[in-house]
Amino acid sequence: MTLASLALVLNTALAQEFFGLAQEDPDNPWQEAPVQLPPMPQDVDLQPFYVSGTATQAFAVDERSIRTDLDGVVRFTLVSRSSAGAVNTSYEGIRCRTREVKQYAFGRADGSWVEARTSKWKQIAGTHANRYHAVLARDFFCDDRAVKGNEEAIRFLLRNQQSVTPY
C-alpha cells in the first residue's frame, strides 16, 4: 500500500467517525432499548436552556423525564413555547454516537401522548435558528460520541448553565 493510499484510508475512517458515519459492528449490531413514555411534564420540573439569540422559541427539558439507557440514547421530554404562547411537547431521544435525534411521541392538550407517525433517526442539524437538538447534544447530553454521564449529571448541567434566557 502506498503512503497516499494509507493516508486516504485513515482520513476516510477518521471522517466517518467524526461525522458519525462509522459503520456498526456487524457481529454486534446496535439495538435500541424499548421506550416507555413518561408522565406529561409539570411546569415546576421544566429546566429552560439557551439556544441562540435568533431562536424563535423558548425551550425547556422536563428534568424528571431524562433517561440514559444502555443503548447510548438520552431520552427526554422537550417543551417549546413560541412568542405567541403556543406550547409543543415532545418525547425525544438523542443518540450521541451517531449525532442523531428521534421523536417518539407528541403531547396532546388533554395531557396524553400520541406516538409519532414517522419515528426514525435523523442527523442533528445545527445550522438553523432553532438548533435546540445540537445545543442539547453538545452542551448537556453528549461528550464527544458518548453520553455525558447519568441522569443526575445531565440534570446538574442543565441546572447550572451560565446564562439562560427566561422560559
Task: Give a brief rundown of this model.
The protein is an alpha+beta fold and 167 residues long. It contains three helices and nine strands.
- Overall geometry comes to globular
- If you average the pLDDT, what whole number results? 84
> Which range does the strand content fall in?
25-35%
- C-alpha end-to-end distance: 57 Å
Helix content: 10-25%
Order of helices and strands: HEEEEEEEHEEH
Q: Which class best fits the helix and strand makeup?
A: alpha+beta
Write the topology of this structure.
Layout lengths: L2 H16 L27 E4 L7 E12 L4 E10 L4 E9 L4 E8 L5 E3 L6 E2 L8 H10 E2 L2 E2 L3 H9 L8
Antiparallel strand pairs: 1-2, 2-3, 3-4, 4-5, 5-6, 5-7, 8-9
Describe the structure.
- The protein is 21% helix and 31% strand.
- The longest helix has 16 residues, at 3-18.
- It is an alpha+beta fold.
- It has helices at 3-18, 132-141, 151-159; strands at residues 46-49, 57-68, 73-82, 87-95, 100-107, 113-115, 122-123, 142-143, 146-147.
